[in-house]
Amino acid sequence: MGICVCVFCNLMFSLLQDQYDVIDKHTQSGLDLVERYVKFVKERTEIEQGYAKQLRNLSRKYLKRGTKEEQECRFTNHQAFQDVLNELNDYAGQRELIAENMITGICVELTKYLRDLKEERKTYLADARKAQQNLEISFKQLENTKKRFAKEWGEAEKAIQQAERTENDITATKAEVDKMKTLAHGRTHTAEESRNDYAAQLQKYNKEQNAFYYSEIPQLFNKLQDLDERRILSLAKGYIQFAHTETAVLPIITKCLDGISTAGKNVDAKQDSIRLIEQNKSGFDRPADVEYEDYSQAIKPATSENNINHPKVRTKLWPFTKKAKVCTPPAEDFSHLPPEQRRKKLQSKVDEINKELQKEQDQSDALVKMKGVYEQSPQMGDPASLEPQFQQTAQNIARLRGELRKYESWLAEASGDDSTNTAVNNNNKHRQIHNTLYDVSLSRSLPADLSQNIYSEFDDDFEEDIEPPIGQATALYTFEGASEGTVSITEGEQLSVMERDKGDGWMRVQRANGDEGYIPSSYVQF
Fold first, then answer.
1. N or C terminus of the chain with fewer C-beta within 10 Å?
2. Which residues form the F-BAR domain (predicted)?
3. C-alpha–C-alpha distance, residues 257 and 84, integer Å
4. What are the angstrom distances between the C-alpha of 141 and each of 52, 207, 387?
5. How many CA atoms lie within 13 A of 340 on its CB side?
6. Domain 13-275 class?
7. Which of 12, 131, 69 is nearest to 348 (CA)?
8. Per CATH, is 471-525 categorized as 2.30.30.40?
9. Based on the number of CB atoms within 10 Å of its own CB, is 521 exposed (0-12), middle (13-18) or buried (19 or more)?
10. Using the 8-state DSSP alphabet, how is residue 266 labeled?
């Protein structure tokens, strides 16, 4: 019976060990699969990032670079290609977003969850191993008590048999018989105690074995089963997230692709042709008909070399002439260009100067407001600290005004606008008159012959009406008129106001010596 129990227990332990190894191997393979999937997603994100980087480099490589004129080219087929590159750049951004979302939504989450699963699995397997070790220790104790019981019971039987033989021996004395009976009784009592110990240990082992097989091990295996199922569900969610990450950006990707299609649909060949014509229209007149030259008439003898009729040379037609390569820089007034192109260039230059002038005027207005705030609240700042900025802004505005008048006169010349030319000429006349007045004031101290020359020049220009002053003003600050069109003034100087401020922060004044020009309106008291 003891041998059968021992063999059965060893068989159970062997089967249990086999199942334990199976579960250990299975759960470990599941965790390895999660690690493989995380590694797979990481490599996928590296591919996405590399793909996005290549797309960005590609779009950056073919984006328009060059001169300002080339960048401002507005041909629809050129602009469509730029739109395609911009949409491709946005598409690359969505690929980067896919990689980023996969890293954060799959790799990071699964890696963290995998770490928790490993710790949990390690705990469960350690508990199962500990329970099995406890059962094996209890079984060894049972084996020891069983062997002790068998040994004690065998010795008790021998003692009883020895006592019976002694009692049946007629030669044995009573003392010997009593001694053998006492020894047999002691052995029997010890055997009974070892039997009781064995029975108790057996009962304890059976109880522990039932708890092990019906409670502890099933609970641990159920926990491992639950762990593995949770691992499988998390992995399945990772598979779904893999697809949803790309699905989430598909609307934007579709929008980028639609933008590329729209760019292609916006190409207008006819509009590009018209724009090319407008941009390069020269304005030259078509050449006249070639006159007929009759060589059949007899040539009259010439009296001199100047009377010789040289044959007329036909000039080249301008659309087919080749431009000579000239190393000289282009003229400031764009006179090197055809009439129509020159007019467009001058108009663009005037618009550009007007924008810069508006910026400077806005800055001047801001400085005036700031100065007013400083004067009302001295703790916020010193008004005198704005003086350099006032002077710099005034110089910039005066310089821009001079350039604007210069380019407007060229534009009027190129456009053939008589009214504009007249206004420019009148303005120049007024300036010449004021300069002449200054010369007259100086001529009083000059000799008669010199003053007569000055008066004669003045009389020629004085046919126009002299513009009278509209008021007087006192200079509050010193202003250095270093730019064209401005005039320098000193603090406390009395000035004649020739033109009021028209809202741009400037007014035209005349000094006592005849100098005339523009100054900041905030620098004087009218």
1. N
2. 1-272
3. 9
4. 69, 14, 106
5. 9
6. mainly alpha
7. 69
8. yes
9. buried
10. T
3-state secondary structure 390-401: HHHHHHHHHHHH
What stretches of 377-386 show up as alpha helix (H) in DSSP?
Answer: none
Predicted confidence (pLDDT) per residue in 42-59, tens digit: 999 999 999 999 999 999
- pLDDT over 90, % of the chain: 29
> How many CB atoms are located within 10 Å of the residue 307 CB?
9
C-alpha to C-alpha distance for 227 and 304, rounded to whole angstroms: 122
The Cα 328–Cα 412 span in angstroms is 26
What is the Cβ-side half-sphere exposure of residue 102, based on CA atoms within 13 angstroms? 28
Nearest-angstrom CA–CA distance, 167 and 169: 5
* Alpha carbon distance, N-terminus to C-terminus of the chain: 132
What pTM does this model have? 0.54
Q: How far is C-alpha 465 from the geometric centre of its chain's CA atoms? A: 64
Radius of gyration for the chain, computed over Cα atoms and rounded to the nearest angstrom: 56
State the CB neighbour count (10 A cutoff) for residue 258.
Answer: 11
Q: What is the pLDDT of residue 72?
A: 62
- Are 519 and 481 in contact, with CB atoms under 8 Å apart? yes
CA distances from 454 to 1, 301, 462, 511, 516 (A): 152, 57, 12, 20, 19
Question: Taking the alpha carbons of 31, 32, 35, 40 in that order, is the dihedral positive or negative?
Answer: negative
